[in-house]
Write a structure and sequence with these properties.
- By secondary structure, the protein is mainly beta.
- It has one domain.
- 7% of the residues lie in helices and 27% in strands.
- The protein has a nine-stranded antiparallel sheet with strand order 19-20-21-22-23-27-26-25-24. Strands 5, 6, 7, 10, 11 and 12 form a six-stranded antiparallel sheet that branches.
- The protein is globular and about 70 Å long.
- Bound molecules: MU-OXO-diiron (FEO) and calcium ion (2 copies).
- Keywords: Membrane, Transmembrane, Transmembrane helix.
- This is Probable phosphatase.
Amino acid sequence: MTLLNNKQQLAHEVVENSNPTNNIDFQTIISRRLNRRSILKGGTGLTAAAFFGALPLVGYSADGDSSPIKNKGNAAAIPAQGNLKRPETLKFTAVAHSTAETMSVAAGYKAEIILPLGTPLISGIDDWKDNREQSAESFEWRMGDNHDGMWFFGKKGGAYDAKASENGLLVMNHEYVNSAELSPFGYDVKEDNNAAPIFQSRRRASDVRREVNCHGVAVVEMKRRTDGMGYEMVRDSKYNRRITSSTTAQLTGPVAGSDLLKTKFDPTGFQTRGINNNCGAGLSPWGTYLTTEENFLGVFARGQDASQLSAGHNYGRERYGATENFPGWEYLWHTPDAKDAKIADEFSRWDMTAVGASAADDYRNGFNTFGYITEIDPFDKSSMPQKRTALGRFAHENCAYAPVEQGKPVVFYMGDDARGEYIYKFVSKATWSNADIGGGLKAGDKYLNDGTLYVAIFNENGRGKWKALVHGQNGLDVSNTVLPFHGQDEVLVFARAAADVVGATKMDRPEWVSVSPMTGEVYVTLTNNKYRGVRDDQPVSAANPRSYDTGGKALGNDNGHIIRWAEAGGDHAATSFEWDIYLFAAPSDLSAENLSQLNDNNDFSSPDGLYFDPRGVLWIQTDDGAYTDTSSCMLLAALPGNVSDGTLTTTSAGQKTRVGMPANNDNIKRFFVGPAGCEVTGITMTPDFKTLFINIQHPGNTWGAVAGGSTPRSATVMITREDGDVILAESFV
Ligand code: FEO
Ligand code: CA
Ligand code: CA
């Protein structure tokens, strides 16, 4: 793991927990009994032998009727071509548990490190130095730190081509920084106990500048190697670009121009500087990149200013973790001496304390300009990132669209990754037109600036509801005493507080979402939650049913699970659904918790990254700390069935719930294990299925270091078959 001094917390281990509501209690009184009829319907055997593009599969709607869900995954910008059959069974040899310093991939495959932290995207700047002495400014043209969500955009003739594999733009997030391994000085702070609470530790200007530039997004042109195996970066490509935490971004949608977004930088409330803590990522149906702002809380500080704010807005800040005298996490970007700033407000803009006469005089609202799904057109270097406020403000993990259909709204699913936070979806007002593929940010304006944000309620009976977060509906008005909602801008900026009001279900940290191209069912990883069944406001529930003690620690859901649902009638705009738990993660020898019957070949813990490839194979990545004595984080391949294909079960906490069909060596297998200390995250496949890219964050030891060097580096891993065939080719034999 990353070296820490006692001042430093690791961002990936810090999980915010700001939900004070007891929404789940409201849920539990609705019903504790599972709907028997829906359980009896299970076991329809749709798990295998289903072909993408073949006859429609049958899904089950929440009202109890069966209805066809057509395979529509190929209708939009999804890169899909050639043989779209899904394997019936996984035939590669499972990768064994490993805690080695190196990575391991299934036999017959090759895994190579590419684009590590610091890699220059242009000529004329030095290569990364192991002593970390390259300048802070140079990172505007280098790969950033902690590579995360990404997407491969096929390119032909200078434009996006969903089917092009020879050449493409690999676009990826740089989520956060490992401060101690980034600066030549290590994690260096000056202590001053006489300063105001949020300034008692001060950082160096150059370190903060370097960190700001190591966040954001990288756009890198890749071309296939001359031997046809894998890719290499096109250095100096006109597309190569870094977007960082200091790049100007546009705020769009219902909140743009609101008083809540007005700052000294833009008193009109339409622009902000920087995109931050970009975690999961995805494609839009029209071919742009959707990145997410997750743990933006950590780079802000808040002093003492409650008396300057309305009680509602004070609560709104606290609901996102920003209480008074909050110094932020270890980053302390607001703390370097102002005399070292190169541009106005370079550091002070990270301090959200209301100190001026009005919002136009300070950065009290800087915090409100982060936490959005942000759209980037990688093919238009001159374009600004667009923060899409209509999709709500929270710790966004990723954003996955449902298969689009001509004339129907476009639907996006999203999770808020903090303990006890919620799952959301956005339904566009505009209806889909295939003519918008390739439409860039203009298409984004059409689909992402106007629509309805919903939050999920998972009832105990295996059914669920979507509640609209619309001002004036569902109690979202000034009558709400904790945070009176005066307009839709307040509903969206304080989406968590709005979701509290409508009784949303507190989940075990919703991470990535992915929609099956075969069944249209939606899958979400719930990575873990140490407070489940521990804190009174987070009792076990059917959708979050485990809380257990492994070796004397407090109870809680240590290993996580994956939930899924089928929208009523197969309609993604529907307001009800039927759900079950696809898979419980657990060490295979933890028998009381191993409810999905995992074995040595497929057991895992803390699912996080999640990706259905266009053939319907589900790839599961882990970000774990609970099972890492046995195995480092990993990537598994899986062939899921559908909601209701399993049984009713009772957890060790005495909670009844529905679990999907058991795991076996045919339907889920470990494909890759990362180096010790890392998280495996971010995943994309080339349109010809021959190359799989994944990312490795915060590796330990010297993984990713230059030859002879000692500083480990986050990097992308490029996986190909040794024989050049498609990924999982052996499973089709
Ligand atoms: Fe950035 Fe929730 O992981
Ligand atoms: Ca994650
Ligand atoms: Ca995680």
